[in-house]
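Incident log, support desk, overnight shift.

02:14 A customer reports that sequence design results differ from what the structure should imply. Their input is reproduced verbatim below. On-call engineer (initials T.W.) acknowledged and began investigating.
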């Protein structure tokens, strides 16, 4: 079928066959389908949602548009597992989850991305570690996963190349928000990684990619349906992002919080809960635990006894980072020299937080990107971020502390932070809901 006929058929809401969709995706990679035709297809998907079978076909075609990782010859001795988050301010869960799962007997080739907009990127966090190679070749990925149990890295250009082309076109044609295309984009890279189980953390709230709960739930259901019908066992969790996840937002500062978590120091309860919930579900998917309760127990055990920290340390060294990083992390991580506390005008209790504005504050400090080409200052960010229901004042307990390289940029970041926090009078009781709001399991 000619590409234009396929587009006309899709525009008329006539379902496409798997072969038609596969041919279209292969044409993107081969260059026989033009950018205008890709844009037209994306717009039809945005205006006329795909059927479930079309979603599955598109995702599988994109997953197999390049090299797919095959772990069958590696004799790993355990399942290949991964977690993906739709992103949120302060979301550093991947840094703890990967080594915890590895310490429990799983193998985690965690293909991560860079930050764009108000949410941070896992690769940017890992790039704050001196010498760490966050985008190695496929041979190195396999070697490190086998020896360390996990590798937090970026996808190579050979994995799901059709997604890279399609995403760039979606970005400039106003079709990024298509539920079908988001689903295919996320899952195609995960399927290309050769996984035997995936847990999805779909976030909602002011600090998330999707603020509205119903939109986030629709995405979670779409991912669950496509993954499981496409042969990838998947569990989805819906988690709250109406406050920062943990007490830091940035890059090196988040790595510090993650390392201290693995060292069983200064652990934020909300960060702990979502990490353990995701680990538990992933261990069940990988048949390393009989149920979520057992999965959580095993995860907590390897965290407390230091085995997870050892896995993280091994991974960092295997990918070019410093030896004994888990012990000497403060020596190796560069933190901006200017620390500026942001105090409330009057004492009070944190009533609500516009978390998106905290993410924008990090961008003002060059800790994030406005454009893909922007250079990131890994040393900047926010620390000691106040949580909902906590008391703050004008002298001792700040809303947060800005760490910056350029003093001139502190004022803009501070203005956003002040706008982000809404306070209630002292003594007010603030109710907060559970961080985990819903789950869908196979």
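02:41 Re-run completed on a clean worker. Output:
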């Amino acid at each position: 079928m000619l590409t234009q006929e396929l587009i006309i058929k899709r525009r008329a809401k006539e379902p496409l066959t798997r072969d038609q969709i596969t041919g279209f995706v292969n044409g993107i990679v081969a260059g026989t389908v033009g950018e205008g035709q890709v844009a037209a297809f994306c717009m039809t998907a945005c205006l006329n949602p795909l059927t479930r079978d079309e979603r599955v076909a598109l995702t599988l075609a994109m997953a197999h548009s390049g090299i797919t990782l095959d772990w069958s010859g590696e004799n790993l001795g355990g399942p290949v597992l991964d977690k993906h988050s739709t992103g949120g301010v302060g979301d550093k869960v991947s840094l703890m989850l990967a080594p915890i799962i590895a310490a429990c007997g799983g193998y985690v080739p965690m293909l991560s991305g860079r930050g764009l907009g108000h949410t941070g990127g896992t690769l940017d966090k890992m790039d704050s570690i001196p010498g760490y190679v966050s985008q190695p070749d496929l041979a190195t990925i396999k070697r490190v996963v086998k020896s360390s149990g996990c590798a937090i890295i970026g996808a190579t250009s050979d994995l799901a190349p059709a997604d890279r082309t399609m995403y760039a076109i979606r970005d400039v044609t106003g079709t990024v928000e298509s539920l079908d295309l988001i689903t295919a984009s996320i899952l195609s890279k995960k399927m290309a990684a050769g996984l035997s189980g995936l847990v999805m953390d779909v976030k909602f709230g002011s600090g998330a990619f999707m603020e509205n709960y119903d939109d986030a739930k629709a995405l979670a259901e779409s991912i669950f349906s496509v993954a499981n019908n496409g042969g990838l066992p998947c569990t989805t969790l819906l988690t709250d992002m109406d406050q920062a996840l943990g007490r830091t937002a940035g890059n090196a500062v988040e790595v510090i919080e993650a390392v201290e978590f693995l060292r069983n120091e200064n652990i934020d309860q909300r960060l702990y809960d979502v990490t353990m919930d995701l680990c538990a579900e992933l261990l069940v998917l990988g048949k390393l635990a009989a149920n979520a309760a057992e999965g959580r127990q095993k995860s907590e055990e390897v965290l407390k006894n230091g085995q997870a920290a050892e896995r993280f340390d091994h991974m960092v060294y295997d990918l070019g980072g410093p030896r004994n990083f888990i012990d000497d992390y403060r020596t190796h991580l560069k933190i901006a020299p200017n620390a500026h506390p942001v105090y409330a005008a009057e004492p009070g209790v944190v009533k609500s937080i516009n978390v998106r504005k905290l993410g924008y504050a990090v961008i003002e400090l060059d800790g994030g990107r406005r454009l893909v080409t922007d250079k990131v200052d890994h040393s900047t960010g926010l620390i000691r971020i106040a949580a909902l229901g906590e008391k703050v004042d004008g002298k001792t307990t700040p809303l947060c502390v800005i760490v910056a390289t350029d003093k001139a940029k502190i004022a803009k970041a501070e203005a956003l932070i002040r706008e982000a926090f809404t306070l209630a009078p002292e003594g007010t009781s603030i109710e907060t809901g559970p961080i985990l709001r819903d789950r869908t399991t196979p």
